Amino acid sequence: MVTQSGGGAGSGGEDDIDKTSAKHLLDSIGKIVHDQVKTEAEKRGKGLQGDLKEARFPHRNGFDHPQQNPCLFDHTRDTNVTSGGGKENPCYGRQGVRFSDTKGAKCYSYGIKGNDSSIGFCAPYRRLHLCVQNLEQIKPDQITSTHNLLVDVLLAAKYEGQSITRDYPKYQATYGYSPSEICTMLARSFADIGDIIRGKDLYRRDSRTDKLEENLRKIFGIIYGKLKDAQSHYSDTTNFYQLREDWWALNRKEVWKAITCEAGGGNRYFRQTCNGGKSSTPNKCRCDGANTDPPTYFDYVPQYLRWLQEWAEDFCRKKKIKVENVKKSCRGENGKDKYCSRNGYDCTKTKRAIGKLRYGNRCIDCLYACNPYVHWIDNQKEQFDKQVKKYTDEINGTSTSSRAKRAATTTNYEDYESKFYEKLKNDGYGTLEGFLGLLNKENVCKEVQDDKGGTISFENVNSRGGGSGAASGGGTSDASGTNNASQGTFYRSEYCQPCPLCGVKKKSDGSGGNTEWERKDSMDKCPSINLYRPKDDKVGTTIKILKSGENQKEIENKLNAFCQTQNGNSGKASSIGSGDCGRNSDSSLCEPWQCYQSDQLEKVGGGEEDEDDHDYDQLVNNSGGLCILENKNKKNESGNNSSNEPDQFQKTFHDFFFYWVAHMLKDSIHWRTRRLKSCISNGKQTKCRNGCHGKCDCFLKWVEQKEKEEWTKIRNHFYNQKNLNVGADFINLPPYYILEQNLQEEFLKGDSEEKSAQDKQNSLDAQEIKHLKEIKKLLDEEKKKNQEEADGAVSFGAFGTGPNHA
């Protein structure tokens, strides 16, 4: 057994394989493969090692040779590229943000080799903007020797390292600092550059053809033609894979020097690999003394496994922060102040089993935090599924990408990937479960310790297909890893769930400082309480709400169904204005609420007093009355789940109003950021682009529905309250002003800019903040405009103005 020190003790084995975590395993096997490849390359590759002193630029004016220190390289002079227009800059056209809080890996079916819609590789966000533009711009005839090629590879490495070291600290400010992370990130980009040079890169950017790879084949063809004894060593004269692998093995240490030019003094690699594995990198992610080899061996790990391990780390790092912020939004700053549901209900007062639904206590924060979190975690599960289904085929060489590589060469040489996978299988990681078990041991994954957010256990996720075992379809639960608390890697968290059937309360009523919540999940914990009903001759106000859904997928599906009806594609006539939410026979999109003023209601007697009856009665009597939704989906047949549901749902008008605003905002943001994002051209006039008129027309009908059928009636009901101006705070104030104060208190209180970066992760996303600020601006403008006349109108975005009231 070998013990690795430095980045944490770990058990080794034969050939010094480190099993501390998946990252350690990959790097230690990579070293073994590297040592084999380098020995073979030194025998074959005489004439492949580059030397900057020998490099010349015969096609450039003004500079005929590069500087000798790659850390001083300037893209305007130290390059073979003559394209102009700034394209000699390796980072030209790349995003400056290399690590994103809101964006992640991409699993394109068209931009990554071997991918389809259900299975494939996921390129890390860092890889999407790798700084190699200069390599794409080189004209093959400009490369006259291996020395010339080295210049532009070093230039790309220098600029890539600069991009990583300058941007990553901003990411660390949110997710925490570790002195090994910069070196690890540099090692990952170093390995991706190595894959590009060797023809192993899976990513093709946005093109179905790989122009960079075509360029490199031609360049290595030129180098091949100038090598003595090339034909006796390299039989592949089409792709030059073996030649390219030897070139990388003999020049990689110079590339590492270039990519670490701006690495800081305190940065060290996560494993002790210097001086025969006896010491860490002392500074700048480099070994010292006579040992000039790079400390990393990620470049001898197949790209698929590197990307999967990087994806897992990024997932764990983000999940930890996101769960912490969902917890704050749904349980309060200290995690114990309140108990809210993902629908925005206050579970201390909501009793779903008897139809009593309550907002308040800033539970709207939970709605806005959970919506993006659930969308994110579900998307992460999809990405995980796609990747793990590749494992068995990849290590056995039977995947599409592996077959394509073999078919592209006429040689039978064993490349570094084949060597790696053979070693991996021989060391006991031929099955998916063993490797996924090591992913759990990454430090950032072990730090995800909130069991209510879901415990990390990658090997127990049911991904359906791709081999044997739980992670590939042999799990015991169909919901494994998604919304099942016992298989919680991709659990949506306990914080983003509906209220228990009969609500919650503090244990022992909170006496003695008890802050634990008692969930009331069974029907027998819901007493028959005194709800309200309309008086015999009172019909109230009918407000039929087009409610699309709670999460992104549900919103998308229901708006699709709405648009099909509006555009005449469903076989049903459009019916905006008829009061059925645009659907003649299908009422699944519509919630027909009846809203009553307090004098139109009476209390149903015979029940017990509920603990919040006083507050509830105050809201009914002084805040616009009550709204009731009949439960038309209830079926009373024995054994039917809906038979346990209430006959109707009740919301105070106060809660109904905020419920409507919250869902209108979610739908509106979906329209603007997803459905119409590519359809609107913003100039002096906002126009709908060609080919999008069906979507734009549907949006206008959605706005018409919201304005005429919903907002107008809600606003009028608000204005018609008997006690609207009662109370010292609101006496003699116009209705529009009171409406504004209510909206600001519930939706705009506590500007997100005042919160820390961690708080922003799962609260309102950037588009929601922008949208809410626009509403606030409109309200502020309306307030100024109406200062001159107390009976002025209120503007609510696109939804018109209010009626005049004396």
UniProtKB/TrEMBL annotation:
InterPro entries: DBL (IPR004258), DBL_C (IPR054595), Duffy-ag-bd_sf (IPR042202), Duffy-antigen-binding (IPR008602), PfEMP1_NTS (IPR029210). It holds the Pfam family NTS. Residues 464-476 have a biased composition (Gly residues). One of its GO terms (cellular component) is membrane. Residues 456-484, 783-806 are annotated as: Disordered. Coiled coil: none annotated. Residues 310-461, 656-791 form the Duffy-binding-like domain. Residues 21-56 form the Plasmodium falciparum erythrocyte membrane protein-1 N-terminal segment domain. Residues 120-306 form the Duffy-antigen binding domain. GO terms for molecular function: host cell surface receptor binding. This is Plasmodium falciparum erythrocyte membrane protein-1 N-terminal segment domain-containing protein. It comes from Plasmodium falciparum Santa Lucia.
